[in-house]
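Entry 12.
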Amino acid sequence: MKRIMVVEDEVAIREFEVINLKRVGYTVVEAGSGEEALDIYDSDAEGFDIALLDISMPGMDGFTLCKELRRRSETLGIIMLTARTQEMDKISGLMLGADDYITKPFSPTELLARVDSLYRRVEMHTAKPEPESSDDITLGEFTLNLRRRTLLKNGVNIELTQVEFQMIEYFFTNPDVALDRTDILNKVWGTNYFGEEKIVDVNIRRLRMKIEDDPSRPKHLVTVWGMGYKWSTR
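Predicted 3D structure (tokens):
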């Protein structure tokens, strides 16, 4: 069953989201504040696939809630909702562990497309792998296991969200190949993604903070100027 938690303090907006999500088959649990959402998440026995979080809420805002939820789960899909147009709000949410963002106002079509796209990635990440997917891919000190969906650096596990894992998998299956942003976006977020290519850049920054010894001078996940990025084995 597809379960999503909708966290929004404005009742009319929350009802709009809930009605449209239920209409296409999601089981929706509502919360009117960040504090209530954490209580629900911690006490819910069934778990959630996706959390839809408003940024601007009194008390615990969406940024803090995102950080707390990501600390509890690397596989939970998180979408931030914001009425703000400032670039830093979007970047801040992604750097705290969100997978995507939607700027208000938005249509039911965009909402459902973004939620469905993220749900497919979450489902892929948590699905039982096929036996032939059990091989490791080793590049230098890194080992990617496709069956367990883990990344080790010198034998130490690196916690990855489902988006980060899919990006790493794409790089590891194409080592030393320059991949442009559009290719990465289509591979990870899907060809029907509504958002912008800069979501790729923010997730690259987040990955570098996890895998590089010096994220400001990356040796593995390097920029190919004028094109995109590649995983360097040299």
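Annotation: The two ends are 45 Å apart (CA to CA). The first strand starts at residue 3 and ends at 7.
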